[in-house]
Amino acid sequence: QVQLVESGGGLVQAGGSLRLSCAASGRTFSSYAMGWFRQAPGKEREFAATITRSGGSTYYADSVKGRFTISRDNAKNTVYLQMNSLKPEDTAVYYCAAKAGSWLYAAGYEYDYWGQGTQVTVSS
Is 117 left (phi over 0), alpha (psi -120 to 50) or beta? Predict the structure, then answer.
């Protein structure tokens, strides 16, 4: 069982930055690939970024590539999402998720555990 708790969301102006954190419980964090997803009001949840369990490989949605960076610290059981050059269309609830596996995963149904989400609002 893995419990995930996101933090770091908030209100920011367009062009600004935020760093989201996701703290995981348990001693097997390094066994899980991690992902960030987001859901805007009235829209389906969408993939944003994923990272392998070692942190050696990452993959991004085209909509965030070049602006967002996913990273992890296995010693701290934490995954991060650094978000730069934020746009109003980035406004959403952001969720982190954990997948017991060795590669990169971009589909939400593949993930085993989810956090409760953190709100990010980007004003124009």
Answer: left
